[in-house]
């Protein structure tokens, strides 16, 4: 929360956030911020027994999704050559 001059320290992120960083406990405890900034610390439950069944299922689903091959796509031909991403293969003019 750069605009609010606030650093929030808490449990590890559950999704990718562009301005967040995962820190180990050692570094999270020693975090310093610029003068005038506020630090908000969300305490972690030390009695937590680890990931829940839902957490493990979500992780398994994410791994399966990442491992699933993409179906082949036919290359698009715009008449000037075959286009692949931002590159184009031009036909031989001879």
Automatic annotation (TrEMBL):
Source superkingdom: Bacteria
InterPro entries: DUF3499
Region (Disordered), start-end ranges: 64-94
Biased composition (Basic and acidic residues): 64-81
Name under which the protein is recorded: DUF3499 domain-containing protein
Species: Geodermatophilus amargosae
One Pfam family per UniProt: DUF3499
């Amino acid at each position: 929360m750069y605009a609010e001059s606030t650093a929030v320290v808490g449990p590890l992120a559950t999704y990718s956030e562009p301005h967040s960083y995962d820190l180990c406990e050692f570094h999270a405890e020693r975090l310093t911020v610029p003068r005038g900034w506020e630090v908000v610390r969300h305490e972690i439950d030390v009695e937590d027994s680890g990931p829940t069944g839902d957490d493990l299922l979500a992780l398994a689903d994410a791994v399966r999704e990442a491992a699933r091959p993409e179906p082949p796509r036919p290359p698009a031909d715009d008449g000037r050559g075959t286009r692949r991403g931002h590159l184009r293969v031009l036909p031989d003019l001879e």
